[in-house]
Amino acid sequence: MAKRLAGKTALVTGASRGIGRAIAQRLASEGATVVVVARSVDASAGNPGTLNETVALIEANGGRAIPIACDLEQQDQCERLIERASEAAGPIDILVNNAGLAEYVPLADMPIDLFDRTMMHYLRAPFILIQHAIPQMKARGAGWIVNIGSVTAQPPIKPYNVFDTDVGSTVYAAAKAAVNRFTQGAAAELLASNIAVNMVGPSTAIVTPGAARYIPEDYPGENVAYLAHTVVEMCHLPAAERTGLVTHSMHFPAAHKLDVVDLDGVTPLPPAEIPAWSHPAVNPSGE
């Protein structure tokens, strides 16, 4: 199978576990050299998974990955990340803004610093990284930026369910809704430079170490490989052909009848099917 991202360098934030790790594995399986980023290379901050483990998984599958520790909450570290990554692996062709802070607290009880940290992770940090990546992408004549979103960006459905009334997801969801608009606006601004900007989010919920506490044990979560494959689909076509999309992991492959493969880049997966319980406002095509 041809490796569509051979010769490309990708940077994935929040890549020590969960969705970020899966995206990094899938990009590497398509031939990209992947710079994987998290707060620490070999520590987990209480959650399972480290960057070293992500690198080992990628290398075991024949790929190449370079770990870089960076705390995106520290502005000086965030501002230097693109430069550090390009020094280690070459100019950045693909930027995946995945790192996040999923702390659900009702509005009445949320500390202002948690509000600020949520917005920093989903808007401020991606803004800084994109600003610093643009010159490299322009110099290379192309670039691909993928922001990882969430189906919670869709409006709550009446009558409201317990997730909307009691869990405290409003600020997180509002930040993710802003990510969608940020993606579309950035796509418009960068189209002339052949830099594609798209959003990929889960169609329903993916059980990860960071999100498991908010997902019922019996919830039929989806396979993260579909999301990782959809990210790859956002990272190889010219911007004139695919940019400004708000896509979702099961919806997009189903709508376009794509053949999806697992994180190894080889093993076929069953055709994507849009879950019956997914949000009705999601546009399958991403347009």
Q: Short description, anyone?
A:
The protein is α/β, with parallel strands linked by helices. This is SDR family NAD(P)-dependent oxidoreductase.
The structure class reads alpha/beta
Major pleated sheet: 7 strands, parallel
Q: Round the Cα radius of gyration to an integer and report it.
A: 18 Å
What fraction of residues sit in β-strands?
Answer: 5-15%
Give the helix proportion (percent range). Answer: 25-40%
What is the first-to-last residue Cα distance? 29 Å
CATH superfamily (homologous) name: NAD(P)-binding Rossmann-like Domain
Q: What is the CATH fold-level name?
A: Rossmann fold
Count of helical segments?
A: 8
How many structural domains in the coordinates?
1
Element order: H for helix, E for strand: EHEHEHEHEHHEHEH
Query: What is the level-2 CATH architecture name?
Result: 3-Layer(aba) Sandwich
Shape: globular
Mean pLDDT: 94
Task: Give the strand order, joined by hyphens, for the main sheet.
Answer: 3-2-1-4-5-6-7
Number of beta strands: 7
Tag the structure with descriptive keywords.
287 residues; alpha/beta; 7-stranded parallel sheet; globular
